[in-house]
Input
Amino acid sequence: MYKIDPAHNRIAPLEPCRFGELGFGERRHLQEWLENCPQALAQGDGEELLVIQKEFDGFDDTRERLDLLAIDKEGNLVIIENKLDDTGRDVVWQALKYAGYCANLSKAQVVDIYQRYLNQKGQQSGRPAESAADKLVEFLEVDGLEAAQINRIKSQRLIFVAARYRKEVTNTVLWLSQFGIACQCFKVTPYRAGNELFLNVEQIIPTPESSEFMIGMVAKETEEKNADSEQKHRHTLRLAFWERALEAFGRSRCTLYNNISPARDHWLYAGSGVSSVPFSLIFGKGEIRVELNIGRRNADENRYVFEGLRARQGEIEERFGQSLEWLPLPDKKSCRIQYAKPVDGYDRANWPEMIEWLVEHMARLEDALREPLKEINQQLKREVFESGELVHD
Output
C-alpha cells in the first residue's frame, strides 16, 4: 500500500505493522472496529451485514463465546471470528462449533438475542433501546417479521479475520467450501505513515473474482450428486421391473426372452434371426414400447432391411392388428419399427398391466415379422454392400 503525495507527484510506501507492536488488542480494538463498521467485510458486490450480538455466550451447557454474530440480507447468521496477528490452529474448529450451536436458533431466539444486544447498547448510550423486530424487518426489507426467513437449515456462514493465516487454516477453509459451507477469510493489515495509521481489509478466500466460480462449482457438484442419486434410483427401478417382466415372459407363448437376464438399462434386446436387428422392449417413465431395432454397421444395409419390410407394411400391420410407427431416422444410421403406449411407468401399481401389454404386443410383433425377416435375411446374404452402395452379385 502506498500513500500519494500530490504536492510532489510521488507515492511513498506505507509501513506495514503488527497489531501487537501498535498496542492494539483483539477485543478492545479489532472487534470494536468491525462491530461498528461491518461493511469492512463486504464482498465485491457490496453485501451488507447487520451485527446482532458480540461476545455471545448464550449456548446451553457451554461457556463458549463467539466474537461477533451478524445476519446478512438473506437472513443467514454469520459467525465472525477475529484473531489479531495470527489465527492460531484452532480457529476453524471454534467457528464450526459456534455455527453448530447457532444452527439450532429459532427466529424468535435470534430476535431475542438481537434485542438483548440493543438493550445493552441503549444502556451504554443512555437512550431507549430500539426494537430488534423493527430493525430486522427494515434490514431484511420484508413486510413483517412473520415474512422473514431467518437462520434456515444449512445457511450459517463463517467469516475469519486475521493478519496472518496458517496453512492448516486456509487448507481447511478451502476444503469446507467444497461442501457448500460458506467460508470467507479476510486479511487485515495495519499500516503506519508518520503519525497516521491505516487499516487494509482484504478478502483472500475466496477472492472476489473466484466467489462466483466457487458458488457455481458447488451448485454443479450438487446437481451431479442429485443426478447420480436419480440414476441409482432408476437403475434399481428398472432392474425390479425387468425381473417381473421376464417372469411373465417365461410363462407366455413368446420365447424371445427365455435366456435374457434383467438389466439396469431402459431396454432389453432379444435376437430376431437377423444379425444386429433385435427385438426390443422399452421401459420408460412415460412410455413402454415394443420395437424392431435395425442397427447393423452399414447404414445402407439398415435401409435395405427397413425398406424391404416397409414394402410389406400392409401385410405386417394386418397380422400385428394395429398400425405401426415406421421410423427411417434419416439423420441416424439405424432405423426402427415400433408400437408404443403412454404410461406412468415409475408407479409400481401400473406394472402388472404394463407387463401384460408388453408380453402380448411383443408376441404379436414377432409373429408379424417372423416370415418377412427370414426372407430379408436370405436376401442380405446374397447382396454385397461396398462403400455405401448396394452391388448385386
